[in-house]
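Q: Could you predict the 3D structure of ATP-dependent DNA helicase PIF1-like protein?
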Amino acid sequence: MRVNEYYPNREIDTRKQEFNKWVLSVGNGTVVAKAKHGEDEPSWIQIPEEFIIKSSGNPIEQIVDDTYLDFIERQNDDDYLTERAILTPRNDDVEEINAYMFKKLAGQSVTYNSADEICKASTETLDQQQLYPTEF
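A: Sure. Here are the predicted structure tokens for ATP-dependent DNA helicase PIF1-like protein:
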């Protein structure tokens, strides 16, 4: 993952550069970790205040609004959407974020169903199950 360090006018965004450096230092293990009371090993790091998104109401709304500034106007702009991502370690957070974003999309929603087995062919053959990989 890379964070774009430039503003749209191609000037360098020093805040994003600092964030990149901090993320790299976390990944490299050079950020000082602290142990909580009762823990043997330090495994907690302090996130700098300038990287925390402040929320007075719905945190999902605040994160989405800070990440996708002009989402309503630019929801059909593929480049705009692929330049941004919200990362979270928990699936229930992902589901909440997706539900919030889908509500903001223009147009009617469509649900596509899937199947978990192969359709029976008109002629059953002995090797029919071998025609498709197990993942299918």
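Q: Anything worth pointing out?
A: DSSP finds five helices and no strands in the chain.
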